[in-house]
C-alpha cells in the first residue's frame, strides 16, 4: 500500500511515517499542500493522510483539487479542530474520513487500511488462494497451516498479487505501490523480493513470471 503523509509539523510527519512503515506500508512525506499536489501528479497513492490546517495552500484546497481532478486515492483528513462543523467542512471538501488530533496510532492505521480497501474493488477481509491465506489486518500469511515468515516488502508484494486476482502485475507497478520514493527503479529489488517470496511460499509454485509483462498468482 502506498501512502502520502501531508503534515507541516515535520517531527509528527516523520514519526507517523516511521510507524506506518513498520506496519508494512510504503510512505512518502511532504510538508505543504503545493508539494502534495506536485507529488500526486506523478505518483499514484492508495491513501493520503492530509493535515487540514496547512500553511499556504490549505488542506481543504488540496482536497478539493484532488477531488476535482478525479484523483483515485482516499483522503484521511487530520486536524486539531474536532468540532462537528469542522468535520462537516472537511468531508464536504472531498475527504473520505476525518480524524481529530491527538489520535491513537492504532486507530490511524485501522482507518488507513479501511480506506485502502475502499479504493479498490470489493475484497474479502482475508485473501485466499488455494491453501494460502493472507490477512492484511493482522499481517499474517499462512500456507497449508504453516505461518510464513514474510518481511514487510514480501508481504506487500504478495498482497498486491493476490489483490490483482490473477491479473498480471508489472514490476513497475509493484515497485510504485510497494516501495517509497527512495526506491531505486534501476535495481533488481522487485526480482529479488519475488525470488525470496517464492522460496518462503514453497511448492507447488504460486507465482508465475509472465515474460516482458510481470508476475501473477
Can you put this structure into words, describing what you see?
The chain is of the alpha/beta class. It folds into two domains: 2-118, Rossmann fold, CATH 3.40.50; 127-216, Orthogonal Bundle (Arc Repressor Mutant, subunit A), CATH 1.10.10.10. The protein is built from eight helices and eleven strands. It has helices spanning 10-22, 33-40, 59-68, 84-92, 105-118, 152-163, 171-178, 189-201, and strands at residues 2-6, 26-30, 47-51, 74-79, 97-100, 127-129, 132-135, 140-143, 146-147, 208-210, 214-216. The strands form three sheets. It has a five-stranded parallel sheet, with helices on both faces. A four-stranded antiparallel sheet has the order 6-7-8-9, with helices on one face. Strands 10-11 form a two-stranded antiparallel ribbon. A hairpin with a 4-residue loop joins strand 7 (132-135) and strand 8 (140-143). Helix 2 packs parallel to helix 3 and helix 6 packs across helix 8. It is elongated and about 55 Å long. The model has no long low-confidence stretch (mean pLDDT 87). Residues 2-116 form the Response regulatory domain. Keywords: DNA-binding, Phosphoprotein. The modification 4-aspartylphosphate is found at residue 51. Pfam families: Response_reg, Trans_reg_C. InterPro entries: CheY-like_superfamily, OmpR/PhoB-type_DNA-bd, Sig_transdc_resp-reg_receiver, WalR-like, WH-like_DNA-bd_sf.
Amino acid at each position: 500500500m502506498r501512502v502520502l503523509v501531508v503534515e507541516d509539523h515535520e517531527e509528527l510527519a516523520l514519526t507517523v511515517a516511521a510507524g506506518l512503515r513498520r506496519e508494512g506500508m510504503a510512505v512518502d512525506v511532504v510538508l505543504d499542500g503545493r508539494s502534495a499536489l506536485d507529488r500526486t501528479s506523478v505518483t499514484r497513492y492508495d491513501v493520503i493522510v492530509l493535515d487540514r490546517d496547512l500553511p499556504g495552500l490549505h488542506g481543504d484546497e488540496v482536497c478539493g483539487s484532488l477531488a476535482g481532478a478525479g484523483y483515485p486515492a482516499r483522503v484521511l483528513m487530520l486536524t486539531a479542530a474536532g468540532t462537528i462543523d469542522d468535520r462537516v467542512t472537511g468531508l464536504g471538501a472531498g475527504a473520505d474520513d476525518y480524524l481529530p488530533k491527538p489520535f491513537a496510532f492504532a486507530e490511524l492505521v485501522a482507518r488507513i487500511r479501511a480506506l485502502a480497501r475502499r479504493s479498490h474493488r470489493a475484497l474479502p477481509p482475508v485473501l485466499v488462494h488455494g491453501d494460502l491465506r493472507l490477512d492484511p489486518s493482522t499481517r499474517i500469511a499462512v500456507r497449508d497451516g504453516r505461518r510464513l515468515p514474510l518481511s514487510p516488502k514480501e508481504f506487500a508484494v504478495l498482497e498486491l498479487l493476490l489483490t490483482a486476482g490473477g491479473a498480471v502485475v508489472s514490476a513497475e507497478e509493484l515497485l510504485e505501490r510497494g516501495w517509497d520514493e527512495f526506491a531505486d527503479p534501476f535495481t533488481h529489488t522487485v526480482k529479488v523480493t519475488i525470488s525470496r517470496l517464492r522460496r518462503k511460499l514453497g511448492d507447488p509454485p504460486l507465482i508465475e513470471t509472465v515474460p516482458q509483462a510481470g508476475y501473477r498468482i
